[in-house]
Amino acid sequence: xxxxxxxxxxxxxxxxxxxxxxxxxxxxxxFDISLRPEGALDLSSFARxxxxxxxxxxxxxxxxxxxxxxxxxxxxxxxxxxxxxRYRFTGKSVLLSLSILPFVLPTVVxxxxxxxxxxxxxxxxDLLATLFSLDYSPIQLERTLAIIIIVHVFYNFAIALRIxxxxxxxxxxxxEEAARTLGANEWAVWRDIRLPMIKPALLSAAVLVFTFxxxxxxxxxxxxxxxxxxxxxxxxxxxxxxxxxxxxxxxxLVQIVVMFVMMVLYTRTQRHVQLSMRSSAGIVKxxxxxxxxxxxxxxxxxASVLLFAPLLALIARSLHLGGALDLSNFAALTEKSRxxxxxxxxxxxxxNSLRFALIAMLAALxxxxxxxxxxxxxxxxxxxxxxxxxxxxxxxxxxxGFGFIVALDEPPLNLRSTWLIIPIxxxxxxxxxxxxxxxxxxxxxxPSVRESAQVLGARERDLLRTIDLPLISRGxxxxxxxxxxVSMGEFGASLFVAQRESVTIPVVIYRLxxxxxxxxxxxxxxxxxxxxxxxAAGFLLIDRLRVAGAGEF
Amino acid sequence: MxxxxxxxxxxxxxxxxxxxxxxxxxxxxxxLLGPSGCGKTTLLRIVAGLITDFRGSVYIAGEDxxxxxxxxxxxxxxxxxxxxxxxxxxxxxxxxxxxRRRLSKSAIAERVGQMLLRVGLEGFGDRDVSTLSGGExxxxxxxxxxxxxxxxxxxDEPLGSLDALLRDQLAxxxxxxxxxAGLSAIYVTHDHREAYAIADRIAVMDDxxxxxxxxxxxxxxxxxxxxxARFLGFSNIFRFDENxxxxxxxxxxxxxxxxxxxxxxxxxxxxxxxxxxxPAISTEGVVxxxxxRGDHREIxxxxxxGMRLTCKSADANLAAGNRVSVHVxxxxxxxxx
Lengths: 553, 337
What we know:
The structure holds two protein chains of two kinds. Chain A folds into two domains: 45-326, MetI-like fold (Orthogonal Bundle); 343-547, MetI-like (MetI-like fold, Orthogonal Bundle). Helices cover 75% and strands 1% of the residues of chain A. Chain A is built from 25 helices and four strands. Chain A has helices at residues 2-9, 13-35, 44-51, 53-86, 92-98, 101-104, 107-118, 123-131, 145-170, 174-181, 186-214, 218-223, 231-241, 245-278, 290-318, 328-331, 348-377, 380-394, 397-407, 421-443, 447-455, 460-489, 492-497, 505-514, 518-545, and strands at residues 87-88, 285-286, 409-410, 413-414. In chain A, helix 2 crosses helix 14 and helix 4 (53-86) runs parallel beside helix 9 (145-170). Chain B folds into two domains: 2-231, Rossmann fold (3-Layer(aba) Sandwich), CATH 3.40.50.300; 237-335, CATH 2.40.50.140. Chain B is 27% helix and 31% strand. In chain B, helix 5 (164-180) links the parallel strand 7 (152-156) and strand 8. Chains A and B meet through helix 21 and helix 22 of A and strand 6 and helix 2 of B.
């Protein structure tokens, strides 16, 4: 038995080698370029970075917009979380499960959606112009900080909401009631009980939202332009437009350091939150008074508008709504528009994306499955591997993409010119998701169940086939759906590694937005809707398969 | 049948088993009885083959089990939490071990039918195990471990997670099913009443060692030492040289024990008021408290010289503060060792 077991453990090498080749090696290459651009230790890039007002400004702006986004998101999510956690109302469960939708929506789609809603040619401007007979667009949000912040709220509102509502729901009412019997009024209950109580979850949500918005790339690149460059966008410009690799590498290094600090903070705050989520009391009350009805109604409407208005606007715009309803935008996808920088017709990228997503999904499933077993059953090895596995999630997609093009363009790993580099980069981003989906169900299998099977005559491989795999199949399916949608929507890394014929849908949308002319813009709309539908399908699948509380998302 | 000899096992610095010996005869049910942490489950897991890192040896019918991996031992093991396969139906759970033995489909179906009948779950075959009650799950677990005709059966606190009422009923059923299958078994429990009901012999374990191995009756009347007696729920434990009354009890014993020997007074051998028609030593006492236990009353007595004695009584008129005459029957005295 000892022999067969150690033979199985050889499989653990697969994810380890994968991470070494496609995560550690590219990252080390970035370090090397930033610290030793000419082969000797040379910190001039950093000196430039920290002596230039421009780069300091970039850094400060990155912090500032993340801070602003985080504060606004958490402030808006807090009252909603309270209502979700404490009141019973129709549509609550639908609202809660829909709230995970932004999580799987690609940045390019969301950027397009907000342009359709609030942009110069957006729905709201059209409406206002018609209503008040204006001959200009009253709302000028394109290329402003405001629209970046709004989109960040859209993305992160639901995450903050879920964390805080989940935590709140797990807390009983006893302390509140005790405070009331001691003479606390509603205001005092908020100040002395509820807010201090929600603090751990609030902090955890804030750290997570800050992390996400600090590394926001697609949204800032598309909606902000160079005027509002964050670190991520600056890395991209330096690496791709100006080709200043040492500086891009130095910026990446700063990015990596900040991200790791945030990850450490997040794990710290999360520990408290997770612990108390276990003991779920789940006290909800029906809506009674008129004021309560008003509050709940307002919050439901706010959340729904935030979530759906942009997506509906996107669909409406893509269908020429307002004029006549037609599908000409979609029909136009089979050809390149004149003047476009694309090498292929937009629709061909759909085939690319599907192919890459399928490969990335299968690879992520394989790696994720092995990694999950390693973490759950690998003893000390697994405990070491667990946090390491979260590193790709804590590294921004742009850094990963940048690492890929600087590290994998020469032997021993010369993948730069093959399309394989795209699904590989997607696998790196997607497989930690598979692990997070599979691990809880794998850990939930009681040792006695496997031992029972052993006593009844099951060998190691029978255990895998008859016990482990059936019991984690649901988590595996969720992981697969996550991996697929993540790959379909991946933008940051793809922008670096996807070349010419092998471009994916998000990259094509980005290029189309950049192209001059209305034809390209319409194609971008249609492509965004296609991507939205694919990701929504992925979301529906995930939502169907998720058992309440079984996943780690 | 099963021979365990010189088995020792440690987890890190903690000794779980220390040079343990035990023989289980054919058709015999041996209960491993002891507080949690005494090593009884460890012993069970060694026999099952789930723990391979131990010293000593385990033989079954003369065959050394050391090199036989767990899945080839052909034993049955029933877990406290039943460890049913949550993704399989009742029938598929029971069929699991049969499938591993590559039996034909028809043979498996027939055997599963037999087992369902034997444990009283006819018609439950297609049910999801999560829809079953605790007692029903326990029957499925039993059927599953019996289905492949195991050479030897092990049960790890199989009634531990059931309520008291169900426990008494199922203990008897378990014994009769095991006996009718003609099996030898090791049965782990921490409940002495359950052990009395099920076991042919009881092995009381204490701190990784065997404290006493005896038939239930003998164990009850003659616990080997104070630890065993206390574990069996006895509280009337004294030293012969404690006071005049205990010295008198010593004097009346058939073979006179040492003065500083400890001994036990079985509560049912203590009579209040009227003197029993068997040899007894009498004294006076005061009722300290009366605890109503349903079918009897538990009386806590204060005897002269600070001696405290517990006994049972059916007398509803006894109340705290009453003076009573106390008669301790000589055959109620349990000598240790």
